[in-house]
Model the fold of this input.
Amino acid sequence: MEQNKEMLESIETSIGEIKPFLQRDGGDIEFVELTPENVVKVKLQGACSGCPGAAITLQAIVERIIKEAVPEVAGVEAV
Done:
């Protein structure tokens, strides 16, 4: 259980590092949950919600940064 707490803290720290870049363009990101399968669920907000480039941002930036910090993460999905 301690490892899960550390994972959650690392995930939230990673998302905190991503936020300023999204906010600069009028968007935002919110951590929703870590599933039992180690999939991180996030909610894209503001300009990111419905943006045609959101899927690319999610995979190319958000997922890469989170996986670098927490290799156990299987993937990142928007909800």
Q: What stands out?
A: The chain has one domain: 2-78. The mean pLDDT is 90. Residues 2-78 form a domain with the GMP Synthetase; Chain A, domain 3 fold (CATH 3.30.300.130).
